[in-house]
């Protein structure tokens, strides 16, 4: 059983930065792709970014490309999301997700309900 725990959310002003972390346990972290999703009030959960098991390949939603950076440290079993130039549209609960079979590219295209591993989420609020 894989457990994912997010941290690092909070309240930030428009234009500010945050770094989210996702700590994994229960399975060799380096064996599966992981990613970030977010859900704003009244909206569907949407893909943000994903990274391959080795970290060599990354994928981003168009809305965050150039502002967000996903990375992972397999030695620490932790994934990160560095978010810069935040605006109100980024306000959401951010979830980390993983899957033992799907690639990072597949995670960027498939419905989120297909993935096996989920964290509990961390709130990010951006205001002026």
Coarse shape: globular
Which bin fits the share of residues in helices? under 10%
Number of helices: 1
Q: Work out the strand percent.
A: over 45%
What is the β-strand count?
11
- Radius of gyration, in angstroms, nearest whole number: 13 Å
Mind describing the biggest β-sheet?
A: 7 strands, mixed
Mean pLDDT, to the nearest integer, reads 95
Order of helices and strands: EEEEEEEEEHEE
Termini Cα gap: 40 Å
Oligomer: single chain
Look at the helices and sheets and give the structural class: mainly beta
Low-confidence stretches: none
Features of the shown structure:
48% strand; globular; 11 strands; seven-stranded mixed β-sheet; four-stranded antiparallel β-sheet; 5% helix; 128 residues
Question: Please, could you describe this protein's structure?
Answer:
By secondary structure, the chain is mainly beta. The protein has one helix spanning 104-109; strands spanning 3-7, 10-13, 18-25, 33-39, 46-51, 58-60, 68-73, 78-83, 92-99, 117-118, 122-127. The model has no long low-confidence stretch (mean pLDDT 95). A hairpin with a 6-residue loop joins strand 5 and strand 6 (58-60). The N and C termini lie far apart (40 Å). It is globular. It is built from 1 helix and 11 strands. The longest helix has 6 residues, at 104-109. The relative contact order is 0.31. The strands form 2 sheets. Strands 2, 4, 5, 6, 9, 10 and 11 form a 7-stranded mixed beta sheet that branches. Strands 1-3-8-7 form a 4-stranded antiparallel beta sheet, with no helix packed on it.
């Amino acid at each position: 059983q894989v457990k994912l725990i997010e941290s690092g959310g909070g309240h930030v002003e428009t234009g500010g930065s945050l770094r989210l972390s996702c700590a994994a346990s229960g399975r060799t972290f380096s064996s599966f792709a992981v990613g970030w999703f977010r859900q704003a009030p009244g909206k569907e959960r949407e893909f943000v970014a994903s990274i391959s098991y080795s970290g060599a390949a990354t994928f981003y939603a168009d809305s965050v490309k150039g502002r967000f950076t996903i990375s992972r440290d397999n030695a620490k079993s932790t994934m990160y999301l560095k978010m810069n130039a935040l605006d109100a549209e980024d306000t959401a609960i951010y979830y980390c997700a993983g899957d033992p079979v799907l690639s990072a590219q597949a995670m960027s295209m498939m419905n989120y309900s297909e993935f096996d591993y989920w964290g509990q989420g961390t709130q990010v609020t951006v205001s002026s």
